[in-house]
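Discrete fold record:
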Amino acid sequence: MITTSKFYKHRGASLGLLLVCWCAAASGDDASDAIVDSMATTASTGAVGASNIGLVMADRVVVRKSERRLDLMRAGRVLRSFRIALGLRPSGHKEREGDYRTPEGSYRLIRRNPRSDFFLSMEVSYPNAQDVAHAQSMRAKPGGAIMIHGWPNTPRKSAEYYANADWTDGCIAVKNSDMVEIWLSTPLDTPIDILP
């Protein structure tokens, strides 16, 4: 969390904008598209890096599906842990498009989208060659667009539902305030291990 002293040590319009967005996400208020887009752009281009606001960059992400937990790791140590929601059918590895499962295996975070239908999203490199081959052996498509993301920008359910249920099509979802921290703490191409 950003402390007041850290905020004043690192002055600047970009950091102020980031703090406003972070606070809006933490409080559950809707941040304007302009603020979110500006924060997302500066974070993804490195204009405001995690080190500038007192965060340590993760060198790996570990998702433990059975524990509904995402860990940001650095040098084998857990930096931070977050509660997650998974696909509607969370048990087992994703095998094909439309099975509502979250994949299991070793992947990478390959792309960021500040304008998705959810509060920020980061793409997981599923499917890999093994996933494609397995789906083809079943005469199916492997599916794709597996993301780590926040809650829907246009919610259709209650906050309690998004906080406590598995509700995605196979993605990994976190609270919006947690998504800001994950976004800022994980550079592109960060490895991600998704465990059963």
Confidence is low (pLDDT under 50) at residues 1-20, 22-49. The chain has six helices and eight strands.
